[in-house]
Every structure is written in C-alpha cells, then in structure tokens.
Amino acid sequence: MDRRSFINKGFLAVAACYGLNSSVFSAIAANMANVEGFMNKNRIGIQLYSIREYLPKDFKGSLQKLADIGFAHVEAYGFDGDTFLGKTLKETSAILNDMGMKLTSTHCGTGLLPADIQAKEWAYWRKTVQAMKEAGGKRLVQPWLPAEKTMDDLKHSAEQFNKVGEICKNSGLKFGFHNHFGEFKTIDGQVMLDVLLQNTDPGLVFFQLDLGHAVNGGVDIRGYLSKYPKRFLSWHASDFKRGQGYTELGHGDVPYDELFKLAKSYGVADLIMEHESGEDRFDICKRNFDFLAQYSWTKAKNNLK
C-alpha cells in the first residue's frame, strides 16, 4: 500500500469509528497526502520533454511513473498559450498534485520575438502568465532564440526579454531563458549568452543553464557560474561526453561533484533533469534520478523561489 492510500484509509477508519462524514475526512486526507508528500520530497524535477513520446498515449500513467521514481516537481514544454497536450496548466497542475508532485515551470514562447513585435505576441505572454499563475507555478522559460545574425538582433532580444520579465514580475512570476550549445557561439567576438546576460535586468530575467549543452558549447561551467553569480536560478541536469555526444548523468564531462559543492554559492534554487533520447526512457530517468539523489544538496527541503 502506498503512502497516500495508507493516509486515506486511516482517516476513513477514524470517521467510521465516530460516525463522521467519510467524504469530508477523505478530502482532508487527500490534501494532507499532497502537502506532506511534496514537502518531504527532494529538489529534483524533470523536464517533461524527456518523455514526450509517452505523454500523448498515456498522460496520467506516464506522470505517475515519474512520481513513483521520486521526482518532486515538473517543467512542462510547448505551452501554446491555451493548453499543454490538450490540458490547461491548471488541469495539469491538479493531476500532478494528486500524485504528490508540483508544476513549477513551463518552456514556452512565441518563437521569434520580431523586431517590431506585434500585439498578439504580448497578448500571448499575458495569457501565458495568467495561465501559470492560476496553476500555482513559479516560472516561464523561453528555450530558444531567433536566428540572430547581428549584435543589434541579439541586444533587441535582450530588450524583449526584459519586457516579458516585467510582465511576469508584475504577476508574481519569474521569466527566464534556457540555453542550448549555440548560445556559446560568438557574434562580433562576444559570446552570445554573455551579451544576453549583460543586457538583461537581473531583477527581471533569470537564466536556466543546461549543463550538458554548456559542455557541448565548450564552456568552463564552474568559471561561467562564478562569472555570473546568482543569475542562473535554475539548472537543467544533462550530460555530454566530448567526442561522443549526449549521455546519461555521470557518464559525461559535466563536473557534478564540484558543481553541487558550490551550488549554494552559485545561487541555484531549481534542478531539472532532462534526457531526450533512448529506448528505455523511464529506466534512464530512474538512473538519472538516482545519480542526482546521491548529492546532499538535492535532499534539502524543496524551497523553490
């Protein structure tokens, strides 16, 4: 019997003994199981893109497998302003809560953020902010850049990020940008991600550092985090082996031992596992979870900001 069933059955037994309304006690038990389950979990989340092939076939069953592995929270992807795989963020959040997990963020975005951004793009962001707020989430993350060709293009994107960040902040949310390896290329001799970091307001825009992509981009991760302390609120836990490609956690060149020793000083608050390939995807997720769970930082009470 799982913990949730044990709590629920215990409350129903008490209700029967005292002739009390069992439906009321059942609701109380369910709520306690949700809260207790999340608060006693870890800091390890998962980007749902990791199981994107499975979710359309069995949405609840796939999420339950993640809960059984032990993930505390999830990050959605591809939110179009209305739904995520046919469900609102609020509906998705309720499903996750019933499993003892929380929806904390989603990858989203209109795509290109054109130079003359149209009213519909701003309407998209306002609608997305409202949807995440209703779902009880914390953050919205833009996971791509336009096809930047000039320094002016890049600085314009930074300007737009500040504006989206202000919309989020006014509603109690945070806005961030997620890197891939391409953002470590240069324009006019400057690393693209450096330009974004230097031209965005730390009070409006955070960054989600994908560790595997950073290694693929040729970055000294420790040096980069030290150069921009407190800017990388969130990490995507992935791994990359130079000369071979992306791999399971602990089999690549991301220096996890050293990163977790310094995680507090770097200012990271949110850890999200992502693995995009492999036939035995849930087994990979379990092995990656177990790898992260060995570090004491991940065992701390979940205090996502």
From TrEMBL:
Keywords: Lyase, Signal
Domain of life assignment: Bacteria
Pfam families, per database record: AP_endonuc_2
GO molecular function list: myo-inosose-2 dehydratase activity
Spans through the membrane: none
Signal peptide: 1-29
Xref: InterPro entries: IolE/XylAMocC-like (IPR050312), Xyl_isomerase-like_sf (IPR036237), Xyl_isomerase-like_TIM-brl (IPR013022)
Keyword Signal: yes
EC nos: 4.2.1.44
Residue span, Xylose isomerase-like TIM barrel domain: 63-292
Protein name, entry field: Inosose dehydratase
Organism: Candidatus Ordinivivax streblomastigis
